[in-house]
Here is the input.
Amino acid sequence: MPGSTSRIGALREPGRSEARAVGVLLVGATGLVMLSLALPYEGSVDVPALIVTAGSMCVVGLLCLALARHIPIWMAHGLLAATMALTGLLIYESGVAAGQYGAVFVWGTLIAAYFFTRRAAIAHLLWLLGVYAVTLVAVSESAGYSSLTRWLFSAVSLSVVMLLTSSLVARRERADMRARRFFDLSRDMLCTANTEGYFVELNAAWESCLGYTPEELRAKPFIGRVHPEDRERTQAEAASLFNGEGSADFENRYLAKDGSWHWLRWSSTLAPDESLIYARATDVTELKRIAAEREDLLAEVESLARSDSLTGLPNRRTLDEQLPRELARVRRSQSPLCIAFLDIDHFKAYNDERGHLVGDTILRNCAVAWDSELRGEDFIFRYGGDEFVVLLPDCPPEQASKIVERLREATPKGQTCSAGMVCWDFVETTDDLLQRADAALYRAKNEGRDRLVCEWTQSIAGNA
Here is the structure.
């Protein structure tokens, strides 16, 4: 991630860091003055003037620190230049061009080289050397060296300091720019956020995906645009992140600028110093849509696999799944279960005579009529062709007979049906039960059709 302490830090407020650095410089210069007055010194020193100058520098420095957020970059330049001039005044008031205030010049050079552009830093160095030249001319002592010699030594030393610092900063800036280029080229939405829940850095993918500019995203807390139904989960995930647990594949919905909701999949980690959260978000809205469509399609296919496309009734496959469950249930409850086969009389001849379209209509009409006559707990299945199976759980034989007769009476006009019904004996298998019901149906057909034949086993008759 690009360093936020660089002089070109993309997210640093203009002038804020520079003003703070100048404020620290002014307060530090005040400390040097107080230290020089506290230690033994020779010669005549204008102590009151030094104290007044140092006090003024301290006040200005403290104001810089307090108001750094509101100080523009141009004012920071002026404050640094003024600090160098005041340092020259301190040297003049001390009466000796000694080294105790040279540290302030070094600090000023470092600040100029680190926070400002190279041209601005050179301008500050030239101003500093000009101030020092005037100071050397004005003071009476130069600690055993000629004024020219001392100025040359200082000019060379400060120039080396500036060149080294500028080179290091330029190298850092190039690394930051390369990192930023990779940062912005990523298709994933990369970001850092602070512990207050505000975005700090964002790459270009955020604006491409959600439509907000980085400034708009940084203007309000992240949680403010999370879907209301996802906020509690998101806050819990953030809490676990601050407890040292990394976050991977967490998903929530985030509001885009056009009012739509985007599903984002997050991977996040807390910085080692716990000051920032590093996160990557991937827009999975389209994947969610495709997955939902696939689920709907699978559900539709599953429904088609278990239902008859012509009548809409459950098919034989569903009967094969449902019947064992019902047998297990009634075995536990020892309640009766009856099953009946229904067959439309002479349907094949009718179908051959009138055509398959008319025959399909008869099948649909019978299915609707019979299904409407059943109880809520009953089931009807299309077994195949013109055969239907009716499952009557918790239904004694006498009541089951009445229900099947009601179905036969509901058969659409012009049609009749035959039915064979049996009641489970709690022993036989599903295949045996179905075969016995099918045999009762064929008996009804053999006896002249349009009738119900019931075959109760001895055990059921005894239970009934």
Observations:
- The chain has three domains: 16-183, 189-287, 307-463.
- The mean pLDDT is 84.
